[in-house]
């Protein structure tokens, strides 16, 4: 996720911005930029890559004395990681930085282009500064800013500065974090997208709410909400930097589980338009004459691929198979000429997946990458790519990367089905509810915490499910293995009596995924067979199950994929809480690395 830092006051501004952005490196970025307004003049610098590149560009620049500055680290969503696409984005006399996604940027861009505005970048952010200047030609700056914000749809945290009012920073917040900080009674203000850059600089912060907007200058901080001016509430800021980076959570993995509601909202933005799925990144000619899809991935991404195969065949009616990348690259596989070869990778650098992609390219088939990192090797090599927009994931055990991969595959299945004129209204309705479904309720987390104390020993775990819940069972087992070091296996529930049930006794723990809308009775029968062999049962279902030792009730949903994502969160929390009880380092499990760039 992108990072924001801002400052207005008399201190050396360049230093404050660069050091603040440094504190946000843990969020991930591919470019950075800074703009400084001093004595009515606007200076700006941008650089691709690490912050040291930006620091080198500003080495001879001084910004002492009163003025203001804004800085940004960018994680690409619209447009490649280039200096032109890096923030801040400039108009004729103003500039802006922005976190989030402007969902209606294309229609705004068309409108502004017709009014004679010229666009340089591929980003959604640039429309903000041009829209502001369009209104500022006839209105006072704050009125122009208000009209600008009113036209934006989507998620945004915005800082904007303009030569028309060179002593003011304008800000707005919706669905993306933005914080204002101050130190004692000093007449200076700081901005950041998380607490980390503000630690040691300020002692009080105000956390903006969705819909808040306003401005700061040397004399005042004005916050508005629904046209009314409200009094900002500043509270004490913890001075623990590691705690600030985790936003108060115990581990990055825990933070990332809670972030899934926001990131799934960002996955949908601009892609779910009314009743249609729109992928601006896809050249439709590349998908012509496709009669088969091959999905290829490793680890968690492989589980996402297995989930996607069910959806692609069921919804788009296209024959789909799934390959483990480390096996595919060595078995001299033959790929049909009308195959779409899809690789899935969180980092875009996974060695086995990259080599599999090269094999597909060598056989001349069309390729698509589903990835979280723009400009990675896999994205550059594939014909087309879909970014998952998860932001950086610090925890080695993947959570939000898996969620966004499955969501992207679901959208791709709907997209292909709609191209074939199939009715996807039920899918669209279910897809729209994803951000609310994965929001972690405190009572759920507390229940998982209480239950977890039973599952710290024994000789192993079965995670079982049917249909798309089988790959979810595989993923649940992998999460537990990765961070608790307990043996766990995922199985199709119907395979129990084909051998695995021989292991069943009271020291074998079974985590049973029993959704309402996907083969409930069949799965229930399989779970009953395990109960009869004394396996300790944790049932996850919207329906009561009297034979279970522990039970987590899920919501009664209309669509099985809504149940899938709700159960996904429960499995992630279970692995987290078991690992914490065992005293393990959740974020850095032994023997594992985040990005596997060797065989």
What this model shows, in words?
- By secondary structure, the protein is an alpha/beta fold.
- It has 18 helices and 27 strands.
- Strand 9 and strand 10 (189-192) form a beta hairpin.
The assigned structural class equals: alpha/beta
Unreliable residue runs: none
Largest sheet: 8 strands, antiparallel
Shape: globular
N/C terminus separation? 29 Å
SS elements, strand count? 27
**Widest beta sheet: strand line-up:** 3-2-4-1-10-9-11-15
Number of helices: 18
* Rg: 25 Å
Percent of residues in beta strands: 15-25%
Overall average residue pLDDT: 92
Helix content range: 25-40%
Structural key phrases:
18 helices, 7-stranded antiparallel β-sheet, alpha/beta, 27 strands
SSE order and pairing:
Elements: E1 3-9, H1 13-22, E2 31-38, E3 41-48, H2 51-57, E4 67-74, E5 89-90, E6 94-102, H3 105-114, H4 126-136, H5 141-151, E7 154-162, E8 165-174, E9 179-182, E10 189-192, E11 204-207, E12 212-216, E13 221-225, E14 228-230, E15 235-236, H6 241-245, H7 252-268, E16 272-273, E17 276-277, E18 292-297, H8 299-316, E19 319-324, H9 325-328, E20 339-345, H10 351-362, E21 366-371, H11 377-381, E22 384-387, H12 400-419, H13 425-432, H14 434-437, H15 442-452, E23 460-465, H16 469-484, E24 488-492, E25 508-513, H17 520-532, E26 536-541, E27 550-553, H18 560-581
Parallel strand pairs: 18-19, 18-20, 20-21, 21-22, 23-24, 23-25, 25-26, 26-27
Antiparallel strand pairs: 1-4, 1-10, 2-3, 2-4, 5-6, 6-7, 7-8, 8-12, 9-10, 9-11, 11-15, 12-13, 13-14, 16-17
Care to give the gist of this entry?
Helix content is 34%, strand content 25%. It is of the alpha/beta class.
């Amino acid at each position: 996720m992108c990072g924001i830092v801002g400052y207005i006051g008399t201190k050396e501004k360049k230093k404050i911005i660069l050091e603040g952005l440094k504190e946000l490196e843990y969020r991930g970025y591919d470019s950075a930029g800074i703009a400084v307004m001093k004595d009515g003049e606007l200076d700006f610098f941008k650089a691709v890559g690490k912050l040291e590149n930006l620091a080198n560009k500003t080495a001879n620049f001084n910004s002492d004395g009163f003025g203001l500055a804004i800085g940004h680290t960018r994680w690409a969503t619209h447009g490649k990681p280039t200096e032109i696409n890096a923030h801040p984005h400039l108009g004729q006399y103003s500039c802006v930085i922005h976190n989030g996604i402007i969902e209606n940027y294309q229609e705004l861009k068309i409108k502004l282009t017709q009014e004679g505005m010229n666009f340089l970048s591929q980003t959604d952010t640039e429309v903000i500064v041009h829209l502001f200047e369009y209104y500022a030609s006839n209105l006072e700056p704050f009125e122009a800013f208000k009209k600008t914000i009113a036209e934006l749809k989507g998620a945004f945290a915005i800082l904007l500065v303009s030569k028309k009012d060179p002593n003011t920073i304008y800000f707005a917040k919706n669905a993306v974090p933005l914080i204002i900080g101050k130190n004692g009674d000093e007449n200076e203000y700081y901005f950041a997208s998380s607490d980390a850059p503000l630690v040691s600089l300020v002692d009080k912060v105000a956390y903006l709410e969705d819909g808040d907007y306003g401005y700061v200058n040397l004399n005042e901080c004005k916050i508005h909400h629904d046209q009314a001016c409200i009094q900002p509430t500043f509270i004490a800021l913890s001075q623990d930097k590691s705690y600030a980076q985790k936003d108060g959570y115990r581990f990055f993995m825990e933070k990332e589980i809670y972030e899934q509601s926001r990131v799934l909202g960002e996955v949908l933005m601009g892609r779910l338009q009314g009743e249609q799925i729109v992928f601006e990144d896809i050249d439709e000619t590349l998908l012509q004459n496709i009669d088969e899809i091959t999905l290829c991935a490793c680890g968690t991404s492989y589980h996402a691929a297995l989930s996607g195969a069910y959806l692609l065949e069921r919804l788009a009616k296209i024959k789909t198979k799934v390959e483990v990348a480390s096996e595919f690259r060595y078995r001299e596989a033959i790929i049909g000429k009308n195959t779409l070869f899809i690789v899935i990778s969180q980092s875009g650098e996974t060695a086995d997946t990259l080599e599999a992609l090269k094999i597909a390219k060598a056989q001349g088939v069309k390729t698509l990458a589903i990835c979280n990192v723009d400009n990675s090797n896999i994205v550059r090599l594939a014909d087309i790519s879909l970014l998952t927009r998860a932001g950086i994931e610090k925890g080695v055990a993947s959570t939000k990367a898996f969620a966004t991969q499955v969501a992207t595959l679901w959208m791709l299945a709907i997209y292909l089905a709609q191209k074939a004129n199939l009715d996807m209204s039920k899918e669209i309705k279910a897809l729209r509810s994803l951000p609310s479904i994965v929001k972690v309720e405190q009572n759920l987390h507390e229940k998982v915490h209480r239950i977890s104390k039973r599952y710290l020993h024994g000789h192993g775990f079965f995670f079982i499910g049917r249909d798309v819940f089988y790959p979810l069972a595989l993923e649940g087992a992998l999460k537990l293995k990765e961070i608790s070091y307990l043996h766990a296996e995922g199985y199709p529930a119907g395979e129990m009596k084909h051998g695995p049930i021989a292991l069943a006794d009271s020291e074998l723990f079974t985590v049973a995924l029993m959704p309402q809308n996907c083969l409930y009775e069949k799965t229930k029968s399989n779970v009953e067979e395990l109960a009869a062999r004394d396996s300790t049962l944790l049932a996850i279902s919207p329906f009561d199950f009297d034979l279970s030792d522990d039970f987590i009730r899920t919501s009664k949903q209309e669509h099985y994929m809504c149940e899938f994502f709700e159960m996904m969160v429960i499995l992630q929390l279970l692995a987290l809480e078991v690992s914490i009880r065992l005293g393990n380092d959740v974020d850095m499990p032994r023997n594992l690395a985040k990005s596997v760039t060797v065989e």
